[in-house]
């Protein structure tokens, strides 16, 4: 277990928030940061809960002290108590030395418990006692330990529904969260999508030292309309991959991963973009298979040669406009330098 986690300072101003929904989220997060109150950050996976927790920590009175993020969902239930509160040597089989838990390691700073709903009922009860009494004992120990920790929690499910189903303790819920910060999915904050695309393009282009003009118009329209089921995390991963693989100056549809193109959109305009992307890819595949012989490619596609020529013109497809081997690519973002 690490002594503590050092993170880069995150300012609230650095978090993309063009939408009204996200501006409200950051306004509430600022209140948490200024007050030092406990809070629950709730929202779908990939919406940026840990980033907001970092901003709450980094802009509050504990800035510069440890920020300790813990993914409770990744810890086996039989080890959660030891991980939270530590243990003494000999407390259980394999406990060869005294170990400090997360609460002790985050002393003076912020402890961020992600996926808190995954904690077992037994561990929830022990966490509640710590929050009520302000002290705890290591497993196998007799010494009472007090620490000063700003506790932030996160859940990707509705904890109130889990309370109703008997899966999460109601008394623990109210001890954990004086403030509930509800973070919307990316589909609920669509006004942020263009700004996020530009943000990630600039970030990864700088990291990979790529001189990219941005996305082509077709690629841009597709990405803006895409539903992003994996939220901001998915978008960042996709853009990083496209930038890393790009060898030209722009990123176009024919370089998008197949799994991205395969997902439809909720409205007809987006469906049109998806069909256009699929047709674009199909034409390129036919041309590649026939060695760019347009007559043979037209036969393979089941269309006339003039129709193929018209569609190639519409898509801007020329022998020099694509690579010899398919791969992901991005293009100039409208409004980006």
Describe this structure in words.
43% of the residues lie in helices and 8% in strands. Helix 5 links the parallel strand 3 (110-114) and strand 4 (150-155). The chain has helices at 20-35, 49-58, 80-85, 102-105, 121-133, 159-164, 170-176, 193-207, 217-225, 231-245, 258-261, 268-289, 294-301, 305-315, and strands spanning 39-42, 67-71, 110-114, 150-155, 179-182, 214-215, 250-251. The chain has two domains: 12-184, 3-Layer(aba) Sandwich (Rossmann fold); 189-315, Helicase, Ruva Protein, domain 3 (Orthogonal Bundle). The strands form two sheets. It has a five-stranded parallel beta sheet with strand order 2-3-4-1-5. Strands 6-7 form a two-stranded parallel sheet. The protein is built from 14 helices and seven strands. By secondary structure, the protein is of the alpha/beta class.
Shape: elongated
**Low-confidence spans: pLDDT under 50, at least 5 residues?**
1-5, 264-268, 323-337
Structural class comes to: alpha/beta
Rg computed from alpha carbons, rounded to a whole number of angstroms: 25 Å
Strands of the biggest beta sheet: in what spatial order?
A: 2-3-4-1-5
At the fold tier of CATH, the topology name of the largest domain is: Rossmann fold
Q: Which architecture of the largest domain per CATH?
A: 3-Layer(aba) Sandwich
Beta-strand content bin: 5-15%
**Helix-strand topology string:** HEHEHHEHEHHEHEHHEHHHH
Number of domains: 2
Count of discrete alpha- or pi-helical segments spanning 4 or more residues = 14
Q: Regarding CATH, which class of the largest domain?
A: Alpha Beta
Main sheet: strands, sense, barrel: 5 strands, parallel
Question: What is the rounded distance between the termini?
Answer: 44 Å
Oligomer: single chain
Summarize the amount of helix as a percent range: 40-55%
In CATH, what is the homologous superfamily of the largest domain? P-loop containing nucleotide triphosphate hydrolases
